[in-house]
Write the structure tokens for this entry.
Amino acid sequence: MHGPIPPDRYFAYLTWTEIAALPDREAVVIVQPLGAIEQHGPHLPLVVDSALGLTVLGQALGQLDASVPAYSLPPLYYGKSNEHWHFPGTVSLSAETLLRVIREVAESIYRAGFRKLVLLNAHGGQPQVLDIAARDLHQTYPDLMVFPLFLWAVPNAAPTLFSPQELTLGIHAGDAETSLMLSIMPDQVRQDKAQAEFPQDLPENSALTMEGALPFAWVTRDLSVSGVLGDPTQATAAKGDQLLESLVAGWVKVLDDIYRFRQPQAGAHPGPGSSR
């Protein structure tokens, strides 16, 4: 049941007495992986986001120093994927449902004495939901530190592996995701069915973009007939191997940083010139 997660890092394999006996539970890092079950074109399976997130997390936990206490919860495979629901097979939760699930999982972890929760999200359609959940949880439980983090946000090798067009517009089932899947689950890639498709009729010479600081709302069928945004025909397992290695290294550092993180406290340390 643990899949790519090392069994000794899989939260659900612990007993309640082992959890009760964990030293310094407030410093233990608990990770909730979040993915999606959604279309990824005719060449990739629905499980892409969940599979990539779990694989990166599993390898990062395997490389993390044994002295750092960190555990993965069972993954949430379903996410907010309504931008893809015009394509058969996509399973989507509403934002309200996802918010409630995250909140109730977090409250369960809090009751058990843990104070550090990582929301490791591998699906690009839901970071905003996780941001809201994290802020609201910390507002309700001031000693709960919540980290709403995106799988791809760590430094990684993508800029050296993919074209400028792919880096800008290849956001779904393109070269990067397909290369990673060829690396970790090659038997589930129908590479003979891969086709390139980039969005057409985007506003020219405009500050508005699909994603970024000034986005416009869209659903996938506005931008793609195949469900692909990018060029998966250029994907290789070799590129996937390099990308995976870099993502894992980034997450090893992030998990270690979170273990050492302490919530800032305003006024805890007098500033220069203070009379305190």
About this structure: The domain at 26-260 is CATH 3.40.50.10310 (Rossmann fold). The longest strand covers residues 29-34. The beta strands are 29-34, 70-72, 116-121, 145-150.
